[in-house]
């Protein structure tokens, strides 16, 4: 049921003290040695994450673990890391990826491509991606190959979530991404601002909203106001939020359970209640499905999708160069997508918001939003 799409993760590492003062020739040798080490440690890691070296077959329903392997690409970038961190640009970030995020290859070809790090969302969610990255980093560091040290994956999701049996005639088509004309922008919420926001939005319904709840609600409210001003339509607005199910089921599932262990809930805000959110997951989700089946009769609806990668320890991924200076995603050509990630201090939040150019201009001028968020500040300064 997942879209045919790759999940991008970009990890940026600074030049370490061991390579900053060496000659160009020795620096190039150091890069080559580092790549060889990454390839060797990746091969060891894939023995534990063996589905990532396979291919999706039989109408998107089976991962064939045939050891076809993963792609490893070495690219040279003619700029400084500080240039990227000083002014992050979603379109520029896409150029550091080995393949387009929306490529159909996500359903037929490589499941894992490494130019930095890149996994197909057909079989892996953010939690699995994080488990993979940190396991690989542990092996690359040479800390230990023992199972007690490595956080190895468990591939038992199919026993918990029974696969749907499809006949050859009823196999659902792959959900391919239709690219839209939209713009991605980065907004940064500092920890102190989030704390203030949490206090101000607390209510009898949600006495202690989480960081993600407070930030995502503000983004949805601001985006809805921008959309209604732009389109001059007063239709309902829907907010679909993906949720990691591992800790939310009884009994809880292991954190290292691999796969797409993701659920979602959908909220609806009617035109009379921009600030007051109406939570009715089943009915809201049914209305979205009706729009997908009969789009022309629901063209005044706005649907937003949010996924949170907060609390996943991407900043702990040390391959031997220290921890990342920045962990981020790249822009996805789908309108009304929101991706939340931790700042490097793991207290603040970075939000990548993709919307139409017209709505973005209104969204970015929302004074309530700007009271809590900075528009694409330098990573170096934050």
Automatic annotation (TrEMBL):
Residues 1-18 form the signal peptide. InterPro entries: CAT-like_dom_sf. Keywords: Acyltransferase, Signal, Transferase. This is BAHD acyltransferase. One of its GO terms (molecular function) is acyltransferase activity. Pfam families: Transferase. Belongs to the plant acyltransferase family. It comes from the Eukaryota.
């Amino acid at each position: 049921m997942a879209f045919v799409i790759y999940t991008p993760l970009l990890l940026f590492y600074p030049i370490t003290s061991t390579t900053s003062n060496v000659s160009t020739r020795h620096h190039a040798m150091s890069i080559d040695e580092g790549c060889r080490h990454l390839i060797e440690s990746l091969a060891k890691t894939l023995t534990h994450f063996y589905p990532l070296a396979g291919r999706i077959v039989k109408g998107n329903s089976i991962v064939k673990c045939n050891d076809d392997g993963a792609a490893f690409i070495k690219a040279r970038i003619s700029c400084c890391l500080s240039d990227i961190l000083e002014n992050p640009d979603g379109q520029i970030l896409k150029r550091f990826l080995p393949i387009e995020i929306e490529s159909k290859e996500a359903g037929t070809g490589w499941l894992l491509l490494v130019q930095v790090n890149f996994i197909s969302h057909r079989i892996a969610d953010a939690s699995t991606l994080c488990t993979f990255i940190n396991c690989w980093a542990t092996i690359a560091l040479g800390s230990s190959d023992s199972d007690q040290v490595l956080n190895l994956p468990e591939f038992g999701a199919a026993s918990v979530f029974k696969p749907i049996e499809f006949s050859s005639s009823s196999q659902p088509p792959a959900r391919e991404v239709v690219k839209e004309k939209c713009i991605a922008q980065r907004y940064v919420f500092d920890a102190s601002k989030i704390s203030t926001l949490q206090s101000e939005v607390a209510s009898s319904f949600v006495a202690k909203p989480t960081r993600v709840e407070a930030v995502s609600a503000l983004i949805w409210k601001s985006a809805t106001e921008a959309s209604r001003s732009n389109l001059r339509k007063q239709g309902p607005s829907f907010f679909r939020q993906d949720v990691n199910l591992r800790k939310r089921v009884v009994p809880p599932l292991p954190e290292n359970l691999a796969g797409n262990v993701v659920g979602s809930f959908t909220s609806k805000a009617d035109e009379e209640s921009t600030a007051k959110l109406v939570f009715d997951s089943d009915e809201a989700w049914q209305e979205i499905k009706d729009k997908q089946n009969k789009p022309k009769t629901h063209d005044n609806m706005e649907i937003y999708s949010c996924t949170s990668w907060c609390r996943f320890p991407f900043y702990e991924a040390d391959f031997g160069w220290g921890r990342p200076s920045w962990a981020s995603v790249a822009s996805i050509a789908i309108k009304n997508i929101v991706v939340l990630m931790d700042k490097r201090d793991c207290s603040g939040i970075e939000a990548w918001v993709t919307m139409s150019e017209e709505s973005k201009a209104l969204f970015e001028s929302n004074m309530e939003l700007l009271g809590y968020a900075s528009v694409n500040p330098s990573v170096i300064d934050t």
